[in-house]
Amino acid sequence: MISNRLKSLVKYINKTDKIIDIGCDHALLDIYLIKNKYINNIIVSDISSNALKQGIKNIKKYNLDNYIETRLGNGLNVLNNNDYIDTIIISGMGTYTILDILNNKYLENINKLIIQSNKDYDILREEVCNLGFNIDKEEVILDKDKIYINIVFIKGKSKLSKEEIIYGTKDMINKEIYYKYLLDKYNKIYLLSKDIKLKEKIDYIEKMLSN
Ligand SMILES: C[S@@+](CC[C@H](N)C(=O)[O-])C[C@H]1O[C@@H](n2cnc3c(N)ncnc32)[C@H](O)[C@@H]1O
Question: How far apart are the C-alpha atoms of 97 and 177, rounded to whole Å?
Answer without folding.
Answer: 24
